[in-house]
From TrEMBL:
SUPFAM superfamilies attached to this UniProt entry: SCP-like
Any Pfam family matching the protein: SCP_3
Coiled-coil regions listed in the entry: none
InterPro entries: SCP2_sterol-bd_dom_sf, SCP_3
Domain Bacterial SCP orthologue: from-to ranges: 31-122
Name by which UniProt lists this protein: Bacterial SCP orthologue domain-containing protein
Gene3D superfamilies: 3.30.1050.40
């Protein structure tokens, strides 16, 4: 079943592009642009890796469930991935690898299915 998108694809890609250009220049991305880029990329992950066994959290901007497997319904899910927005967008756009992200100490992944490396990058920007 396809996910319901809340971020328009054109607007989401534009936000990701703006984030990538700003990050390349070592600038700071405006909060609304950062939020749109995170939410769009989470929706993209959920549409490519449909399922409910892993919860991906990018506080304070968004959360999604993805990866096929046992469905979780109550309490803290057994498979959780959480990281800051900038790190998530770097992963989603291929600027860094899953292994590099783990080494930063900012990526927290727990559970047998919490490795997202097979699903990343989602969209590559130089």
């Amino acid at each position: 079943m396809a996910i319901k998108r809340r971020i328009d694809e054109t607007a989401g890609r534009a936000a990701l592009r703006e984030w990538a250009q700003t990050a390349q220049g070592q600038g700071k991305t405006a909060r609304p642009v950062l939020a749109a880029a995170v939410r769009f990329s989470l929706e993209e992950l959920a549409s490519r890796a449909e399922g409910n066994s892993v919860e991906v959290r990018i506080p304070p901007f968004g959360v999604t469930q993805c990866i096929a497997g046992p469905r979780h319904t109550r309490g803290t899910p057994p498979n959780v991935v959480e990281m800051p927005a900038e790190l998530w967008l770097s992963l989603a756009t291929g600027r860094i690898s899953w292994g590099e992200a783990l080494q930063t100490g900012q990526l927290h992944a727990s559970g047998l299915r919490a490795d997202l490396s097979a699903h990343l990058p989602l969209i590559e920007y130089p």
